[in-house]
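Summary for the funding panel

The consortium committed to producing paired sequence-structure records for every protein in the target list. Below we show the first two records in order, beginning with the earlier of the two.
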Amino acid sequence: MSRRGGREWAADIGAFVFAGCFMVLSADAVWVDPGTSPTALLLDQLAGGLACAAVFLRRRMPVPLATVLLLAEPFSHFTTGPILVALFTVAVNRAPRVTALLSVLAFGPVPIFLASGPAADDPRTASALTYFALLAGAIGWGLYVRSRRQLVLSLRERAARAATEARREAREDIAREMHDVLAHRLSLLSVHAGALEFNPGASPDQVGRAAGVIRDSAHQALEDLREIIGVLRAPDAGDRPQPVLADVEQLTAESRQAGSRVTLAMDVAGGPDTAPPVAGRTAYRIVQEGLTNARKHGPGPDAPVSVTVRGGSGKGLTVEIRNPARRDAAQRDSTSTGTAIPGAGQGLIGLKERTLLAGGTLEHGWDGTDYRLYATLPWPR
């Protein structure tokens, strides 16, 4: 048994005081045989006092304590208080089966008492009925406390599991967000750096433009990373601004500045600003991932990439990205010196999860010569 703390000592002292006060206050109401000698009565009271002191053993051995007190009760009229404390402790801290066995021992004399035909005006009848009623109350109250503690423990465990699941989902969302944002920015850096390395004789103007794009992309990547880390450090500071469908035009413009031949066909009824936030944000991430993969796995920076976004209220939203690509996994970036742009292979997996959470579908694969990324997203009326 672990050592008692302050609360345990306070509870045990309270139980001892209750048992002692019960013995003293109920002394006049306890029926005592008129023929009992003063010495026997004194010994009976001393037995009650020892029973009260034995209450401090209720945590170490509640079942033996309750058993001994119940067996001693017919020989001592002043053990009722300690018995109530012992039965309450057993009902709270032991299995219901153990409590049921002790209940059988506690209420075993009831049939014998009823069979004896007690008189209603006999003091022993009132004393016995009061005793058994107190036993039933102690056991019932102990079972109630036990069930309440188990309920609180179950709720705490459920809350802990929910908090753990929430933290896991938050980490996955942050990891997915970092992949979507940083992979796009860093792939732009890789394309321009590879172009400078591949063409060392570029004019100063070309070098200056490429360096400017690299600087801007690096700055934007740091800003995106700073925002994400800021959310992690100050989760109560509010949500960072999320992209919408209208931002797809800026996204494709950045890819064009990086040298990619990106064509955008936007056919959205009412304009891209009318798209639902969830569908628009998911469509933006799909286009972002498609452009990133086209730079990483396409045959070259000047390979054509087509982005088509169509939809409207009640019709849904469709997003399609097509670009030439080779199917071998060992493809290398043609603008570099033979080093492929690294990828974790988790982009499409996370993108599919994101699309499913938005209520849509995602398909990807080769259709002969092009790699096709196609998604459908709901747009209710």
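The next record, for a separate protein in the list, is shown here:
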Amino acid sequence: MDKIVDARGLVCPQPVIKTREAMKDMTEGTLTILVDNEITVQNVMKLGNYSGFNPTSQKLSEAEYQVVFYMKKGAVTLQHNALEEECVPDSRKKGLVAVISSDQMGTGSEELGRILMKGFVYAMTQLEELPETILLYNGGARLSTMGSASLEDLKTLEAQGVEILTCGTCLNYYGLSEKLCVGTVTNMYEITEKMAGARLVIRP
């Protein structure tokens, strides 16, 4: 049996509590939780991970997100009552902008460069302080599109509140306009504005 929990407009810990209530009498199926901000996504994702349901998240619009728990019959649900009282703080570092202009890192072997770039994007997910914004342009635009090896890591970052912006002109140039899978399309003015206003810019 599938269920939907509408937790939009609720403040922590209410979305987590409503999700736990919906989980109680579910033995299999999908549980979809609708929320309206990235930090609530982070809190609900944490509950799903503790419970062993391998949750996924998706940004539906500017102020609407969904988290999906995949519940299989016979799966063990881990108890973690303290989660009802936990609200994960915003772990983004204000003014930290990551700028990625290629799908490869460094010069030399293209294959090695792509491996290094995948490692770089993954490493960002492990930082104690995440970037506030990631800007993707030129070859870096490929990272946020269908088939990218870094797609799941970028989705993880977005679910934790990181703004993912991909150059629209670059997507058009590479024929990827219909294949964007994470974040939103941006333009050169906004890219310049984000970089100019950053307190710290990091580049692979």
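Regarding this second record: Residues 76-85 have pLDDT under 50 and may be disordered. The CA atoms of residues 19 and 186 lie 34 Å apart.
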